[in-house]
Design brief:
Strand content: over 45%
Number of helices: 0
Structural class: mainly beta
Order of helices and strands: EEEEEEEEEEE
Shape: globular
Largest sheet: 7 strands, mixed
Helix content: under 10%
Length: 126
């Protein structure tokens, strides 16, 4: 089972930026699609972004498109989420996850991911 450790969360004012990182254990990181999800208080966990094994394909939720950028460094077993123009509604715990199977097909479905980090809190103040 892969271990995923997120970092980079914090408190930022609206309009600010944060960069989240997620480091994975093991030697198979580079073949899997990775994703970021988030869960706000009292809400269901929702898809934020995903990136395929090579970094050549990325997918975003409409709510973050144009503001967030997902990327990865396979040499470092790390996936990133650059978040710009943050809004109070972006406040949530952010989780990274690894896709259940090796596939390039796009997905935003939580059930398609089976390994999750512990999450990192992002708070955006107005």
């Amino acid at each position: 089972q892969v271990q995923l450790v997120e970092s980079g969360g914090g408190v930022v004012q609206a309009g600010g930026s944060l960069r989240l990182s997620c480091e994975a254990s093991g030697r198979t990181f580079s073949i899997y699609t990775m994703g970021w999800f988030r869960q706000a208080p009292g809400k269901e966990r929702e898809f934020v972004a995903a990136i395929n094994w090579s970094g050549g394909r990325t997918y975003y939720a409409d709510s973050v498109k144009g503001r967030f950028t997902i990327s990865r460094d396979n040499a470092k077993n790390t996936v990133y989420l650059q978040m710009n123009s943050l809004k109070p509604e972006d406040t949530a715990i952010y989780y990274c996850a690894r896709r259940r199977i090796v596939s390039d097909a796009p997905t935003a479905t939580e059930g398609d991911f089976d390994s999750w980090g512990q999450g990192t809190q992002v708070t955006v103040s107005s």
